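Example record used in the benchmark description.
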Amino acid sequence: MLDCTIINGKEGLPTLILAHGAGADLSSEFMTDMAGRIATHGVRVVRFNFPYMIKRAQDGKKRPPDRAPKLIDAYSDLIEALNTPCVIGGKSMGGRIASMLANGSDVPAQVQGCIALGYPFHPPGKPDNLRTEHLLRLTTPTLIAQGTRDAMGTKEEVLGCGLDKTLELVWLEDGNHDLKPRKASGFTHDAHLEATAKHVADFVKRCL
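Model output (C-alpha cells):
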C-alpha cells in the first residue's frame, strides 16, 4: 500500500490519511486541491488508492467499489504500514469507510480522530436509506464538513438523524456534495474549500 500513496507535507507533522470517493482516485482535482490546502496549515496528508481503484488504473476497466469490509481492511493495512498516530478520513465514500473504521469495534491504536468531506448520509434521492448507524454513538472524535444542499445529506436531513452530540459538523452554506455553492448564493467554492481545510487542520492538531 505504501507504494500507492501521495504525501503532502513534511515528515514529523501531524498526519491525516485521506481516502478518495467511489468514482475518482487519489489524484482527482478535489483530492489534490484539498490535500494541498490542508498541508499548508501544518498537517502531513497521506492519500492512497483502494485496491479496486489500483486495478482500474492498471487495466483501464471501470470497477465498482469493493464491499465495505474489504475497503476497511485496506484502510487498516495502510494505517499499520504507516504505524504513526493519525487522523483518518476521506471524501464521500472514503469518509464513510474511515468513520466506520474509527467508530467500529476494532479501532487501530494509531487512530486518534476521523474526518469526512461530503459524507454520503444516504444515496441521492433516497433520504430514508440512512448510512448513520455508527454515527449515533461515536467512540472516536469525528468531524464532518458538509454542504447545506448536498444531495446525499442536506442540513435539514442531517440535523434530523439523531447523530451523536459530540460529532462536529462544519456547514458550507449552499454547498453541494463537492462543497461547491451556486454563484447566486454569494459564496465561492474557493472560500468554502479553504475554510474546510482550516477546520480540518485545526481538528487534526487537536486530536494529535
